[in-house]
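ARCHIVE RECORD
Type: protein–small molecule complex
Small molecule: fructose -6-phosphate
Source of inputs: curated submission
Record status: active
Notes field left blank by submitter.
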Amino acid sequence: IGTIVFENSTEASKAVAKEIADLIKAKQAKNEFCILGLATGSTPKGLYAELVRLHKEEGLSFKNVVSFNLDEYYPMEPDSINSYVFFMKELLFNHVDILPENCHIPDGTLSKEAISKYCREYEAKIESLGGIDIQILGIGGNGHIGFNESGSLKNSKTRLVALDHITRVAASGDFGGLVKTPRTAITLGVKKIMEAKRVILMAWGEGKSNIIKEAVEGTVTNQVPASYLQEHNNATFVLDQAAASKLT
Ligand code: F6R
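STRUCTURE (tokenized, with ligand):
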């Protein structure tokens, strides 16, 4: 596991956007799809802004990109302002030339009975395209990646999960209070994240510094799912100075 520390999150986001853009272009030259695993939340906003800028100002095309988002609240309507569908459209998809049919986000409208089959198919689609080329991650205050909360196993599959209290508290501002905040979500499992050819976990700010230390320097444990990335052969933590401040 590598860590790279940038002066600030803007510089860090630009560097990550450049790595993604370079891979998209290299794949274009070979007539191949580029498979991106994408995250939501506050952390990747600067990354998406830079990717939009690269499209608008430098002609970067997303025509050969296929994306798979990590997670979606359940239940959730796609046109809700709290949905990750809405988030991705607002911050990225509506501003670049990615094909709508190439954008995948777990479906928050399924019946409970339909979820496990849907999750198997979500993973099968990723596999049929040859797996994720670059997986973008943020990290929860409890060390979650996607919505793989503490206790998630290394071989966990894509599934419906119960959100931790701390995760719901963090989201409650968006939902107008804890009681209105979803209790469950569909998340890509740890196994598919670990199978990605390249993993980039981004974290900004002092508030993430303790969990970053645990994830990078602590023992590998299901209590901190991000610590599994210590066992990935091509994972990098991209940090600002504040998030890195507790590392030895
Ligand atoms: C979002 C996701 C979550 C977030 C994490 C950090 O798709 O999978 O794991 O990355 O909760 O959220 P922020 O970036 O808002 O601090």
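CURATOR ANNOTATION: The chain has one domain: 2-244.
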